[in-house]
Amino acid sequence: MSTGPTSTSDRPFGRVLTAMVTPFSADGGLDQDAAGKLAHQLVEQGCDGLVVNGTTGESPTTTDLEKAELVATVVQAVGDRAAVVAGVGTYDTAHSVQLARQAQRAGAHGLLVVTPYYSRPPQAGLLVHFTAVADATDLPVMLYNIPPRSVVSIARETLYQLAGHPRIVAVKDATGDLGAGAEIIANTELAYYCGDDALNLPWLSVGAVGFVSVIGNVVPDRLRSMMAAFDAGEVSAARQLHASTLSLIRAFCGAGGVAFGKAALRLTGLDVGEPRLPLLPAEPDQVTAIASALAEVGILE
């Protein structure tokens, strides 16, 4: 089983992962040149993993072909410097299986599989769904538990069962339940990744191995420094670095992840286009807040 160029057994996808935006050109098509530039930039600034075709990557509005092209472009751009994790989760198990196989053919190093949304499946359905996707390829799988978007959460007992699958190796957690996560971390070999930037440091304190970050589109170096400080036992320094990102997180929450990421990148010199409908670009006041936050962290003057 390939777990990516930077992985170890307890950190299967790296540690500092960015949930990468999907760049679009002026005519609304996939901008592969900008995608390659962004992927290279993120790795140069501290990412050892990239998640593409996720929520921040506007996966609901990209075609299957665009998804495959984006994976191939990013893999080519980063080479063996970072693990490329492809989002393949949908509310249709058969489609998710197809996307998983497509991602493997395109060169992905791992898969991100979100809880099926809208249809609100029972826990038994989640178990079968995730198992089917994990069985579809020989790539390692990160489950994505985000009940604010999917409504249904992956129950603790379901995670214990899924942890027995040889290719289900990690969880991206956006539940905010550090207590439940700490228990699962203690009792399984699942690697936990924080999926909520406001809780990046708290999750490290209970045993998470890293983050899948939206603000990482513009401050991966800050996240890398925070993690390094925490690993070195310099908790006060880690806390200060985490606190320095809070204004960015507020701006992100105000605009939404996609609008934030695209506006912030444009402000820092890389135009990645506008979101696709039904999402909208950041409003002028939101752009002002994003610019102010970027200035506060020292990226803009």
Structural write-up:
There is one protein chain. This protein is α/β, with parallel strands linked by helices and 301 residues long. 46% of the residues lie in helices and 12% in strands. The chain contains 13 helices and eight strands. The chain has an eight-stranded parallel barrel with strand order 1-2-3-4-5-6-7-8, surrounded by five helices. It is globular.
Secondary-structure blueprint:
Layout: E1 16-19, H1 32-44, E2 49-52, H2 64-78, E3 83-87, H3 93-106, E4 110-114, H4 123-136, E5 141-145, H5 147-150, H6 156-162, E6 168-173, H7 178-187, E7 191-194, H8 200-205, E8 210-213, H9 220-231, H10 235-244, H11 246-255, H12 257-267, H13 284-296
Parallel strand pairs: 1-2, 1-8, 2-3, 3-4, 4-5, 5-6, 6-7, 7-8
Helix pairs in contact: 1-2, 2-3, 3-4, 9-10, 11-12, 11-13, 12-13
Which keywords apply here?
301 residues, globular
Write a compact overview of the structure shown.
The chain has helices at residues 32-44, 64-78, 93-106, 123-136, 147-150, 156-162, 178-187, 200-205, 220-231, 235-244, 246-255, 257-267, 284-296, and strands at 16-19, 49-52, 83-87, 110-114, 141-145, 168-173, 191-194, 210-213. The protein is α/β, with parallel strands linked by helices. The termini are far apart.
**Envelope shape:** globular
Mean pLDDT: 96
Strand order of the largest sheet: 1-2-3-4-5-6-7-8
Largest sheet, in brief, is: 8 strands, parallel, barrel
The amount of beta strand, in percent, is 5-15%
Question: How far is the first residue's CA from the last residue's CA?
Answer: 46 Å
Q: What low-confidence regions span 5 or more consecutive residues with pLDDT below 50?
A: none
Provide the gyration radius in Å: 18 Å
Structural category is alpha/beta
What oligomeric state do these chains adopt?
Answer: single chain
Count the strands?
8
Q: Give the % helix.
A: 40-55%
Written as H for each helix and E for each strand, in order along the chain, the element string is EHEHEHEHEHHEHEHEHHHHH
> What is the tally of helical segments?
13
